[in-house]
Amino acid sequence: MTEPPLLDIRDLHLSMTSFDGEAHVLAGVNLSVRRNEVWGVVGETGCGKSLTGLSISRLVPSPPARYLGGKILFDGRDLLSLDEAGMRNLRGHRIGMIFQDPTTNLNPAFRIGEQLVDVALAADRRNPDILGVAARAGRRARRRAARDLAVRTLAEVGITDAAERIDAYPHEFSGGMRQRVLIAMALIGRPDLLIADEPTTALDVSVQSQILALLAGMVRDHAMGVILITHNLGVVAKACSHVAVMYAGVIVESGPVAAVLRKPSHPYTRALMSSIPTSGVRRGELKGLPGQVPNLIKPPRGCRFAPRCAQAAEACRAGPPRPVDIGGGHMAACLKPGPAAEAA
Amino acid sequence: MLVLERVSKEFRGRRSLFTSGRTVSALRDISLAVERGETFGIVGESGSGKTTLTRLILRLDMPTSGRILFEGDDMARLSAAAMRRLRARIQIVFQDPYASLNPRMTVHDIVTEPMLIHRATLGLDQRTRTARAAELLAMVGLAEQHLHRYPHEFSGGQRQRIGIARALATGPAMLLLDEPTSALDVSVQAQVLNLLHGLQQRLGLTYVFISHDLSVVRYICDRLAVINRGEIVETGQAEDVFRNPANTYTRMLLAAMPDLPSL
């Protein structure tokens, strides 16, 4: 706990302008990630998971987005005050990103190798250690080194015959292999922080478990911090060390995975968990979550979950509840945290 | 109710305009029987042949060999008129509720369209069609006032409800559910699964449930078939297959499934 966190998001507020008004889409997000931690960020569609991820790499277009307040400290520097050139120095080099759809994130017109070499050469400009060639080495030598690195990284993410496959085009690869290429691309600059936005959602379960195992290995080998955005609590249970549950732009519960999933203390976390069909649930008795995500242009005044919460009381509607530590870094933003009276 | 006897489907690849390439065998010797009133799961990964199988059952494609019997009739031998009547009995709910509803049609038009197409079989005039559309919406948990809205005004879960209402419009005996919840959030998925279960109880429907989500299949299906590379590798009571998977591929799938109780 002595080492300062790699990433520290403090009270981040983000709003988006739309035709109907200004939506307060992130309302005070707090998250800190250390090296070797894999943070799962879960929640329903539209709760701000991806915007949190994109804010870290400053890829939220503004306008329409506006940061109303807060800080995103990366290695002690506030990313929100950095200019575009400064951000470019970090992206792909210190901060790696993987997105959901491996098909649309590779350029179909270029060979896999060329796309990887580009990233490697760009990363080498910031950190000459990456290619390990002398500063005065020529372009050819640099390219050759970049290509070797690309082959090594592809092999590292589990692509067999990397030396030959590197000259293939994206369409010759399956979905799982394309996702591996994207992971390789994100790792080639040796990032300290990896943001993976639904990296396995489009993939089959068997490929998913391979990719998750691969990520775990990468975290171990490179001492990275990872933010894994997903809507699948099963993936969180399998791959993450910590979890943050988001609802309507707020982190409602967070902490070590085992603590949060064993003792879900926010009613929203419990509702999410009881929506998942497990072996014990009889047919027709699955609990869903009634109601809808609130309109963020006019969000509920108090706790944003109150309108859908079975335990909401008058006090919940007065003001947003502060996150409280309920033991061992397990935080819940609820006035009445703890297991519900009726067993979840 | 639905019987597949040694159904195979091959696609002939084409190397160039004039020479035929190698044939791809999409389904090999598929035999299965779906009983009336049950939910039969078909589980497989992408590329396993799930979609080809649904296309064959809907007779959007013809099998290369083998027979498909629906309520005792060989679908390949039916006359065009008989086939039209049969199509009203089998309906499908698609995976993506964003892509499967025409954005330029109102909910009313979407839900009444199948009744219009099958008016020869169903014999409903316009007023009864509208009344039935309102009834169907109520059945799937929407209200009459939603009839004159457009798909974009609805959330994903509501759209899937509209898709289900449309599938029920012709009064089918069987619904093909092609990954009906994989585009939805878990909380919404739970609602849609419960809706499907309730409808089945009320209307005595038979479901063929196609999915790659094993926990959903376990929850909703009575029996299931696991399909891998175009072949059924295991079939049986859902609970048995989950408890004692006999096939190595099934075991691999189950092991890969991210599950909460693994804590």
Structural class by SSE content of chain A = alpha/beta
Main-sheet strand order of chain A equals 6-7-8-3-9-10-12-11
Q: What portion of the residues of chain B fall into strands of 2 or more residues?
A: 25-35%
Distance between the termini of chain A: 33 Å
- The unreliable regions of chain A are none
Largest inter-chain contact set: A-B, 38 and 35 residues
Residue-averaged pLDDT of chain B: 90
Radius of gyration of chain A: 21 Å
SS element count, helices of chain A: 10
Low-confidence stretches of chain B: none
Assign the structural class of chain B, choosing from mainly alpha, mainly beta, alpha/beta, alpha+beta, or little secondary structure: alpha/beta
Question: Brief overview, please?
Answer:
Chain A has helices at 49-56, 84-90, 112-126, 139-156, 162-165, 175-187, 205-222, 233-239, 257-262, 267-274, and strands at 7-18, 21-33, 38-42, 65-74, 77-78, 95-98, 193-197, 225-229, 242-247, 250-256, 324-325, 331-332.
Question: What are the key terms here?
Answer:
heterodimer; A: 344 residues; alpha/beta; four-stranded antiparallel beta sheet; B: 263 residues; six-stranded mixed beta sheet; 37% helix; globular
3D architecture notes:
The complex is a heterodimer of chains A (344) and B (263). In chain A, strands 6-7-8-3-9-10-12-11 form an 8-stranded mixed sheet, with helices on both faces. Chain A has 10 helices and 12 strands. Chain A has helices at 49-56, 84-90, 112-126, 139-156, 162-165, 175-187, 205-222, 233-239, 257-262, 267-274; strands spanning 7-18, 21-33, 38-42, 65-74, 77-78, 95-98, 193-197, 225-229, 242-247, 250-256, 324-325, 331-332. The longest helix of chain A has 18 residues, at 139-156. The mean pLDDT of chain A is 87. Chain A has a domain at 104-190. Chain A is α/β, with parallel strands linked by helices. In chain A, β9 and β10 (250-256) form a beta hairpin. Chain B is an alpha/beta fold and 263 residues long. Chain B has a domain at 102-172. Chain B has 10 helices and 10 strands. In chain B, the strands form 2 sheets. A 6-stranded mixed sheet of chain B has the order 6-7-8-3-9-10, with helices on both faces. The longest helix of chain B has 18 residues, at 186-203. The model of chain B has no long low-confidence stretch (mean pLDDT 90). Classes of the chains: A alpha/beta (344), B alpha/beta (263). The A-B interface holds A 44-45, 175, 204-209, 212, 231-235, 237-239, 258, 261-262, 271-273, 275-279, 281, 283-284, 286-290, 292 and B 45-46, 155-156, 185-191, 193-194, 197-198, 201, 212, 214-216, 218-220, 242, 252-253, 255-263.
